[in-house]
């Protein structure tokens, strides 16, 4: 019988249910700072996997995460990778390192994202949030795709997981013109975040379509979790205005959505990565550790928009992908 998951299911419960699926796998997770969802997922996956590759743009914070994981899971095979998704040159450098690994990549989890912030351009001239959460991961996925494809067998289909958010519904869709040419006078931090999360969902679905069964993509919302992402001081004005946090930075207990613990938030990441029942639901969006395509806003499920976003993303990062 398939396990039953609920909003309070934890990552340990999901990992226990799918331990056979995790065993022997090589998993790459972006954005694994301590007190984040990526770190939480990495810690649980490391108990069973063959290899867990963790990433961060700061060598110091990445070393802290690596040491903490090795302390929490003695004997775990942890490999750090410097990856700054806000710089296309840095993404290319990291991808070159991954492509030199002897191992294939069974599961790629695109988790890293910029905190909600004021208008800021990356060195490549893109808006910070959309660059870090979409364009950087798009390029990284494209460049290391041969290592992901190498995991495909007659009995196993590798997966690319995009950690999105229910907040994708807080915009009317992606403004493709502004993705290419950001405008400060029309910028709003929360809107940019919602657009980036919309892009995560569209990318997972379009990747699934284009890969033709060789690789499948899934996206998900982990729910509201008090991570270092939420606690970032730059995000404070937007989160206060939206009523998500209180003046002291604590979660607002009166939000229409329940707050989750880190283990509860990471549970959906693990379900997307390893639940074998999803083999029959390619491109699905998950919430509370189960498929929830009904939770996707119309602008994040439009096939035409997904194709246009993919084509534009190829042009902006300078790579043809699938």
Automatic annotation (TrEMBL):
Q: Provide an example Pfam family for this protein.
A: adh_short
Write out the entry's keywords from A to Z. Oxidoreductase
Q: Which GO terms describe its molecular function?
A: oxidoreductase activity
Superkingdom of origin organism? Eukaryota
Per the record's keyword annotation, is ATP-binding included, yes or no?
Answer: no
Q: Does the keyword Oxidoreductase apply?
A: yes
Q: Which residues cross the membrane?
A: none
Which InterPro entries does the protein's record reference?
NAD(P)-bd_dom_sf (IPR036291), SDR_fam (IPR002347)
Q: Which PANTHER family match?
A: PHOSPHATIDYLINOSITOL-GLYCAN BIOSYNTHESIS CLASS F PROTEIN, PHOSPHATIDYLINOSITOL-GLYCAN BIOSYNTHESIS CLASS F PROTEIN-RELATED
* Protein name (database record): Short-chain dehydrogenase
